[in-house]
Amino acid sequence: MSSWLWTSAAMAEAMRAATQGTLPDGVTGLSIDSRTIGKGEAYFAIKGDVHDGHAFVEAALKAGAGLAVVEAAQRDKFPADAKLLVVDDVLAALVDLAHASRKRLGAQIIAVTGSVGKTSTKEALRRVLSAQGTTHASAASFNNHWGVPLSLARCPADVRFAIFEIGMNHSGEITPLVRMVRPHVAVITTVEPVHLEFFSGIEAIADAKAEIFEGVEPGGAVVLNRDNSQFARLQKRAKKLGINRIISFGEHKTAEARLIDVSLHATCSAVHADILDHDITYKISMPGRHMAMNSLAVLAGASLLGADIARAALSLSQLEAPSGRGVRRALEVGHGEATLIDESYNANPASMGAALNVLGQAKVGAHGRRIAVLGDMLELGPTGPDLHRSLAEAVTANRIDLVYCCGPLMRNLWDALSTGKRGGYAESSAALEAQVLAAIRAGDAIMVKGSLSSKMKVIVSALEKRFPGKAAHEEAV
Predict the structure, then answer these.
(1) What separation in angstroms does the CA of 121 have from each of 2, 162, 229?
(2) Which CATH architecture has domain 6-88?
(3) pTM of the full predicted structure?
(4) What is the CATH number of domain 105-318?
(5) Beta-ladder partners of 308
(6) pLDDT tens digit sequence for 39-88
(7) Are 53 and 146 contacting, i.e. CB atoms less than 8 angstroms apart?
(8) What is the CATH code for 327-471?
(9) Under DSSP, is residue 328 helix (H, G, I), strand (E, B) or coil?
(10) What does the alpha-carbon distance between residue 43 and residue 93 come to, in Å, rounded to a whole number?
């Protein structure tokens, strides 16, 4: 049956699994979440940081899972007729299945990493490439030790293009993941001072990102940010590993994907660029200079995979922001509207600066204000207080009217702000929520951002509940 993602026999062989119960001929998909399992999918009972997936096997099977993958040490917990593939270690079995998936693929494969912009670049590649052929891409931010093998094992055998996001916050994390993916093209969006708690400095971060070169297929290419301070270091490492096709992007005069001009608008950008000797003017339906810069990498990467550059550039006008990464909503406030910019998924100094820049470009009403609601940026080590304090410059430069600060690290920014720009401060997002809700009025533009564990999504959800609205419309260029 052609609709199977995997036959049960192929899964068992790839994972060296024993079988139990009467298994279906195949499975339609793979899942690690019993709450969202699809009918006919295989459920992998992975042990997470909080929960052991084996506790949800029966729920997954009852919900329609075709079979479950469990470890031998726990198989006795389940009925003798339960439809199981039994392995020594479930995560290791998923990795084995990912390797088997890569062996059967004939697709052109691209992998994306970088300190900032991984997910939005991956989603832009998805939009661009899916218009030109069947395309598979990592879901959400599935970029870690379980997300990458899950994404690869989920890849249908017959796609033309496949896109994988690869992340890290420690040295050595990218190497096994990229050797699994074995991309034809690898993209590093940028190298910035993030995860400094775990690295000696930005050069060490660059070296960790450069691990992505270790899995590039022979004859493959890499796409690097020419404007980044670590370009020469990355270029040298790529060459040392025998990669000869190094494509750079940026404003630098030697960049093969070069930004000639950009016009920034409240909800979009117009770009004039030279992409691999193609002079192109195009519109990106997401705002911010950072998006314009990363679009150069997207078009270069797509071209290296064999996609048509002109069609790819046209597709960039249809981008949609990933959840928590710039999604806009119009909030109904009194007899008017305010604009909410949801950047709550994560934050580091580079992405925070970019988000404040986007807020600075946002349109406000006659009596509206630009309001930033900012949570702690984590994993910055001893430099954390100074990096938070220095955001005051970006606040001023981008004409932000009010700032609400959340968390002990953001207290450093609060102390650095002029009295007129201080909106409110609280130790937690739950404690700050009421202050933000009380402040909003028609015409305002509100941007909410912070590291994931600072829980700034709490404030986004509260705003959406108090002021129900709709997705904000994009302006025409």
Answers:
(1) 31, 14, 20
(2) 3-Layer(aba) Sandwich (3.40)
(3) 0.90
(4) 3.40.1190.10
(5) none
(6) 999 999 999 888 999 999 999 999 999 999 999 999 999 999 999 999 99
(7) no
(8) 3.90.190.20
(9) strand
(10) 12
